[in-house]
UniProtKB/TrEMBL annotation, chains A, B, C:
<dbReference type="GO" id="GO:0030234">
    <property type="term" value="F:enzyme regulator activity"/>
</dbReference>
<keyword id="KW-0597">Phosphoprotein</keyword>
<dbReference type="GO" id="GO:0005524">
    <property type="term" value="F:ATP binding"/>
</dbReference>
<comment type="subunit">
    <text>Homotrimer.</text>
</comment>
<dbReference type="InterPro" id="IPR002187">
    <property type="entry name" value="N-reg_PII"/>
</dbReference>
<dbReference type="InterPro" id="IPR017918">
    <property type="entry name" value="N-reg_PII_CS"/>
</dbReference>
<comment type="similarity">
    <text>Belongs to the P(II) protein family.</text>
</comment>
<dbReference type="InterPro" id="IPR011322">
    <property type="entry name" value="N-reg_PII-like_a/b"/>
</dbReference>
<dbReference type="GO" id="GO:0006808">
    <property type="term" value="P:regulation of nitrogen utilization"/>
</dbReference>
<dbReference type="Pfam" id="PF00543">
    <property type="entry name" value="P-II"/>
</dbReference>
<keyword id="KW-0547">Nucleotide-binding</keyword>
<dbReference type="InterPro" id="IPR002332">
    <property type="entry name" value="N-reg_PII_urydylation_site"/>
</dbReference>
<keyword id="KW-0805">Transcription regulation</keyword>
<protein>
    <recommendedName>
        <fullName>Nitrogen regulatory protein P-II</fullName>
    </recommendedName>
</protein>
<feature type="modified residue" description="O-UMP-tyrosine">
    <location>
        <position position="51"/>
    </location>
</feature>
<keyword id="KW-0804">Transcription</keyword>
<dbReference type="GO" id="GO:0005829">
    <property type="term" value="C:cytosol"/>
</dbReference>
Length: 112, 112, 112
C-alpha cells in the first residue's frame, strides 16, 4: 500500500476530490497547510492577493491506495491540480506497511 | 522505528491520549484535519450536526514508536477510537529511518 | 528521496526557514500542530504562558530532499530549532518513492 500526499492550490481541491471519486477512491484526508516552492520571493496569486511573503496557503491531501492504483491516482491528482502557473503543487508517495479500518478491525488493502 | 498515523473522531482523542500514556507512550503530535471514508454522501454525525457534505472534521494523531511497540500501539488506538459507527477512523503505519530529539541531539529509538 | 518532518517551537520557524534557504532548499510545507513529548504534565512555556495542559502548540515542517541532502538538512533544522529547553522538537525521516512537480510533470529528484 502507498500513501500519496499532494500539496495543492486550495481552489483545485473540489475538482481533485471529484475526479478521485470518479476514479473510485473511497476516502481521503485533508489538512490546511502553507508552503513555498522554487519561486520563493516571487509573487504567487491567492484569492486575488499577491503573496510576496513566503508561505502561500495550500491544501494537503492524503490518499491511501493499493499499490496497483498509485500511478493512476497520481495522474488524476496531477491532471486536476494543474493550472500551468507556478505553485501548482507537489505530489509524493511513501510506502505504507499497515492500514487498519477502525470500525471493522480489517487490515491491509481491504481496510483502505 | 515506525510512524503510526491515526485519523479519528475528535471526541475520541482524549481517551486515546490517556490510553497511550497508560501504555507508556511519551509523545505524540496532533493536527486538525477533515476527510471522508467509504460512506461519502451518507450522513455522519459530528457535534449533533449531520454532515452530508463530504469533509467531516477529524483529528490526525501521529505517534513515533519503536518497531516492537507498533502492534500494541495500533491496538490501543483502535480500541479507544472505536464506537461502532461509520467514520470511526483509519490507522496506518509508515517506516521511519531516523528520529532526532532536538534538545539532546540523540538519534534512533532513544530519541523517541 | 526522503521526507524530513520536524515538529518544532513556533518561534523558531523563521530562523529554520532562513537557514534552509541559505543551505539551498527550494521548498517546504508548514502545518499548525500541537503535541507533547516526555515532560507531559510538566510546564512548558509558550508565548509567556505556562502550558500545564498536555498539547502545546507546535509547527510541523515538511521538506522533501534528495538522499544526499538528508543528513545536512537534519543538521540545519536541529541547529536552528535548538534552544536547550524542553520541548525543542522532534525530527524524523521517511523514505519517498516518487515526487512529482505538478506544473511540469517532472518526476524524481528533479521534481523536488
Ligand atoms: N521540497 C519541498 N518539500 C516539501 N514541500 C514542498 C517542497 N517544494 C514544494 N513544496 C510544497 O508544494 C507547494 C507547491 O510547490 P510548487 O508548485 O511551487 O513547487 P515548484 O517546484 O516551485 O514548482 P513551480 O515551478 O511549478 O512553482 C509549496 O507551496 C509547498 O507547500
Ligand atoms: N483511503 C483513505 N486515504 C486517506 N484517508 C482516509 C482514507 N479513508 C479514510 N480516510 C480518513 O479516515 C477518516 C475516517 O474514515 P472512515 O472511518 O469513514 O473509513 P471507512 O473505510 O469509511 O470506515 P467505516 O465504514 O467504518 O466508515 C476519513 O474521514 C478520512 O479522513
Ligand atoms: N513519540 C512522538 N511521536 C510523535 N510526535 C512526537 C513524539 N515525541 C514528541 N513529539 C512531537 O515533538 C514535539 C516536541 O517534543 P519534545 O521536544 O518535547 O520531545 P522530548 O523527547 O520530550 O524532548 P525534550 O526532553 O527536549 O522535551 C512534541 O510537542 C510533539 O508534537
Ligand atoms: Mg513554485
Ligand atoms: Mg466511512
Ligand atoms: Mg519534551
Amino acid at each position: 500500500m502507498k500513501l500519496i500526499t499532494a500539496v495543492v492550490k486550495p481552489f483545485r481541491v473540489d475538482d481533485i476530490k471529484e475526479a478521485l471519486r470518479t476514479f473510485g477512491i473511497q476516502g481521503l484526508t485533508v489538512t490546511e497547510a502553507s508552503g513555498y516552492g522554487r519561486q520563493r520571493g516571487h509573487t504567487e496569486v491567492y484569492r486575488g492577493a499577491e503573496y510576496q511573503v513566503d508561505l502561500v496557503p495550500k491544501v494537503r491531501i492524503e490518499v491511501l491506495v493499493e499499490d496497483s492504483d498509485a500511478e493512476d491516482v497520481i495522474d488524476v491528482i496531477v491532471k486536476k491540480a494543474h493550472t500551468g502557473k507556478i505553485g501548482d503543487g507537489k505530489v509524493w508517495v511513501v510506502p505504507v506497511e499497515t492500514v487498519v479500518r477502525v470500525r471493522t478491525g480489517e487490515r491491509g488493502p481491504d481496510a483502505i
